[in-house]
Amino acid sequence: MGVDFKKENHVAYITLNRPEAMNSLDPESMDQLVDIWSTVKNDPDIRVAVLTGTGQKAFSTGTDMKKTPPPKECMASIYLRDGQPIIPHMKMWKPIIAAINGYAVGGGLEMALACDLRIASSNAKFGLTEVKVASLAGLNGTQCLPRAIPLSVAMKMMLTGDLIDAQEALRIGLVSDIVEPDELIGLARKYAEKIANNAPLSVKAVKQAVVMGMDLPLDHGLAFAHLLWGVLRDTEDRKEGFQAFAEKRAPEYKGK
Ligand SMILES: CC(C)(COP(=O)(O)OP(=O)(O)OC[C@H]1O[C@@H](n2cnc3c(N)ncnc32)[C@H](O)[C@@H]1OP(=O)(O)O)[C@@H](O)C(=O)NCCC(=O)NCCSC(=O)/C(=C/c1ccccc1)CC(=O)O
Predict the structure, then answer these.
(1) Region 205-220: what's the mean pLDDT?
(2) If you measure from the C-alpha of residue 175 to the centroid of ligand 1, how many angstroms do you get, rounded to a whole number?
(3) Of 12, 67, 165, 197, which has the most beta carbons under 10 Å away?
(4) Dist. CA 237 → ligand 1 center (Å)
(5) Which residue, judged by its Cα, is nearest atom 30 of ligand 1?
(6) pLDDT recorded at residue 188
(7) CA of 233 to the centre of ligand 1 (A)
(8) Is residue 234 over pLDDT 90?
């Protein structure tokens, strides 16, 4: 199997599982990911997802350059039918955590950039190296890397194809945490379960406010956030949250 999927305690774990090829994406894995992201988005029991790779060498190195056949159809017919292969399927209001366990290169880094939290093992390395293989970070890299880190660093990475290490990624804010490789999935689980224990509608609203607000002028973003707060104001979960606080007990959220 190119990609493994399991669900535990409202958390979906998606593991790219082709360690012999640095967890790169062959066409079968891409098809699997499309189905998996659809499940994550639509299963009401799933509140948060963790994306990682098998082993300690690689998160993913993007397109499997040995197994991706030359296209039989023209680009227009593929693009206008399916859009991009992966990133649009990762778009949802449930948070996604990238647990980066080694190389996150090319489309691998682009998938990590489509996640909301990025945590990494101390041996992780990051790069958009497409320029070295005569291609382009055409999923989201040219747009999202400069929004995630300083422009001059992003340009250096994309134009040279050089990799940066985990310490540098932490310094420039590409990742929020670095831990030893053995501790990575535990940390991802800890964050995922914390998020899953919060009110699901509130969690989705936070992501929506931030993601949509980033592209708005501040006044519009503030107005939008206030409306989202109003949307949450009458939920059963908000009443439960306030009541549980007053009664000094853990809340039981239902996503209503
Ligand atoms: C990551 C590396 C620097 C690691 O080097 P290292 O020396 O440690 O390990 P290797 O011996 O090189 O790798 C071990 C083993 O894995 C195979 N491998 C690694 N990556 C790939 C890959 N992407 N495809 C196929 N096979 C891969 C490697 O060949 C070895 O196999 P073996 O010889 O043992 O049989 C180094 O591995 C490296 O530089 N990898 C390539 C990284 C890269 O260039 N990635 C970008 C790919 S292009 C891309 O992702 C794109 C995404 C996209 C954009 C838009 C729309 C869709 C997709 C662009 C595109 O597809 O055009």
Answers:
(1) 97
(2) 22
(3) 12
(4) 46
(5) 21
(6) 98
(7) 48
(8) yes
The four Cα atoms 196, 24, 140, 46 give a dihedral, to 10 degrees, of -20
For ligand 1, what atom is nearest to the CA of residue 132?
44
Rounded to the nearest 5°, which phi and psi values hold at 15? -120, 115
Confidence (pLDDT) at 71: 84
Q: Tell the residue number behind the tokens 């009401």, with chain if given.
A: 44
Residue 240 is encoded by which pair of tokens?
Answer: 């439960």
Active site residues: 110, 130
Of ligand 1's listed atoms, the one at least distance from the Cα of 67 is: 25
Encode pLDDT of 178-196 as tens digits: 999 999 999 999 999 999 9
What is the pLDDT, as a whole number, of residue 80?
87
Q: From the CB of 61, is ligand 1 less than 6 Å away?
A: yes
Q: Hey, what domains does the chain have and what are their CATH numbers?
A: 3-196 (3.90.226.10), 200-246 (1.10.12.10)
